[in-house]
Amino acid sequence: MLATDSGKARIERPGEPPPDLAGRAGIVPDLMGSERDPGPPRVLSGIQPSGDFHLGNYIGAVRHWVADQDRNDCFYLIVDLHAITLPQNPQELRARTVELATILLAAGIDPERSTLFVQSHVHEHAELAWVLQCVATLGELRRMTQFKEKTAKGQESSSSAGLFTYPVLQAADILLYRTDKVPVGEDQRQHVELTRDIAQRFNRRFGDTFVLPEATVPPVGAKIMDLQNPGAKMSKSSESPQGTIAILDPPEDLARKVRTAVTDSGREVIAREDKPAITNLLTIHSIISGQPVDALEERYAGSGYAQFKSDLADELVAFLEPFQRRYHDLRDDPGEIARLLGIGAEKARAVASEMLALAYDRVGLLPMGKA
Ligand code: AMP
Ligand code: TRP
Question: What's the predicted TM-score (pTM) here?
């Protein structure tokens, strides 16, 4: 057994030769490359500190992150280096980073069980990203749908180069931690596939090093739509703030947004393809109240939209109330947030520095102090 920085031991496989390190005269001979830890699966995900955190982010992502903590070894990052691929106001970026950390803690990410940190606090991310940029190809980055969408209006030549290499930084985030599972929305599946391709190419070229991760995408139905435009996803960059439920909205705004949500023709409270607006509201109600959609349909049969929306408004306010209370309590103690993020960064770095050293070694970078 080999001890690791995280105090865990890795699987020993007698009779199997160690990964192809010796022949490469590496200087990190203790490290076992892509060997997995025998502990619980490692889960890693990231979220950008840009825009207002909304109900869709909670339902589609963070709710699952919280649940994953019970069964997995979880790493959650606030990806500020990704945020600067688009122009940001520096003061606002700092404030949003703290705000997002506070939201994640208030939502139930537990720093005792998970490793919660800010990406830029662990410099290994930017460093491994550079190495991986030398493994990724222009061709594969050009195929990334998100890049094509973000530069759709013919702005490619004025976009930052960082926007183009964004998925490689994401690959570094994932590969630094020997991640098994990456919970993300459907739109991020392609980036996780790219991460696998880069890791495989690196492993072939330099010897077994990185664990190949898998995307875990929550089942459909968990995509929350804009309350004013149920054809579009609820989004941080939405043009209709009235259609986006921000998690920190005061109760009167929450209630107003639900009551003024657009509805479909007819008055039946029923989830059906030709009724996207009421289907979306039923999904939200079901998730926050824990009642199945068909039970809600039955309960509101014949009562019309107004009663349903009024009840949903109450449910939503009651659902967010304890969360908002925790948020404000935590917000009153910024020193504590900074302390918790410091602990997270240290835990992360213990793992990341080991992996970066291995990757540097594999590609033949000379360590300082050796000649
Ligand atoms: P974003 O707001 O695009 O940075 O996404 C952060 C996380 O929230 C990702 O995992 C998304 O898949 C998830 N997410 C964003 N918007 C929604 C939505 N409207 N419904 C469900 N999940 C969402
Ligand atoms: N690109 C992701 C998004 O926009 C955020 C992200 C950055 C991420 N690094 C990650 C997600 C690593 C999962 C794993 O949603």
Answer: 0.89
